[in-house]
Design goal:
By secondary structure, the chain is an alpha+beta fold. Helices cover 41% and strands 13% of the residues. A hairpin with a 2-residue loop joins β2 and β3.
Length: 78
């Protein structure tokens, strides 16, 4: 009766994202940053729009990118 794709969770799991310490890229996308900061993607987009969050993104080709060094700093500050 129900399609199998409807019953699976679309929320990211721990296995989809490696520990932040192992990320070697200088920046990550909004979905990844939201996962590590335990916030919704829309919250990060609001931070970008109003420039009022604990981290500010860089814009690359019209997309938001979040510096991994900034994410680590925020998480260390608690």
């Amino acid at each position: 009766m129900f399609d199998q794709t409807l019953t699976t969770s679309s929320h990211p799991t721990e296995s989809q994202y490696p520990p932040l310490e192992s990320i070697t890229r200088p920046a990550v996308d909004t979905a990844t940053a939201a996962y590590y900061l335990n916030r919704k993607q829309q919250t990060l987009r609001a931070w970008a729009t109003y420039q009022n969050g604990p981290v500010n993104p860089i814009r690359v080709g019209g997309r938001l990118a979040w510096k991994t060094s900034d994410l680590r700093r925020v998480l260390m500050e608690g």
